[in-house]
Amino acid sequence: MSHLIDCHSHINEFDITEIQNILNRSLQSEVSKIIIAGTTLEISKQCAYMTKTFDQLFCGIGIHPMDIESPVTEKTVSELAEITNSNKKVIVVSEIGLDFMDGMPDREWQYNAFRLQIRMAKTLKLPIIFHSREADNETLRILREEQAFEVGGAMHYFQGDESLAKKVIDMGFFISLARPLTRLEKLQKVVSTISLDHLLLESDSAPQPFKSKRENWTEPRHVKDIAIKISELHNVDYDEVKATTYNNILELIPQLKT
Ligand SMILES: [Zn+2]
What we know:
Elements: E1 4-9, H1 16-28, E2 31-36, H2 41-53, E3 57-61, H3 74-82, E4 90-99, H4 107-124, E5 128-133, H5 136-145, E6 153-155, H6 162-170, E7 173-177, H7 185-191, E8 199-201, H8 223-234, H9 238-252
Parallel strand pairs: 1-2, 2-3, 3-4, 4-5, 5-6, 6-7, 7-8
Helix pairs in contact: 3-4, 8-9
Bound molecules: zinc ion (ZN).
């Protein structure tokens, strides 16, 4: 039977006392499994640890481009890789990528961290869930140069146009959609042209204290709203979206089948 899977979340950032309730709510919305993303070495270790406590959780290891505070070294990357040794629930390299918004870390540091972590993903044979903000051409160039298609993965929080979607798919990656799809008409038009076979779902959920009502904070349960929106855009049953995106993620990460 198929379920919804949230391929990218930061619910590890919520208070630990909230996690079980968030997971219960996600189950009620048919979101059976959630992949949390590492953003630093320490947080990657914490995420891996959390997967041992909570059945529904799987995780990625990685250093987020926004969180690079000094040049990432080979030693740091090998410590990241070691996290996978004793933990079968570490199933992707995430969150890695490039972020060229103003005020972000030094770009040379970002390029270096991205390349080293793509090489790590290839050594570990783990797919990559990547971040790209104001850096799409460069992100794709690095993925191409490092032959990241060997492991594949997904462009997370996709908000690009049709031509970007095509480039990402041609390179062998999935397009992962988050909650903006439910409100952005331009994105809805783009997604209506992408075959369901290339889509994954995510919440990218993290605490949102700037939203005054707690019930409005994005959680993995909202993945269901994204699936419903896709079914409307493609004029197919919700069950078909659920089944296809489930098959897509199992193709990428067969370990999620258990
Ligand atoms: Zn993220």
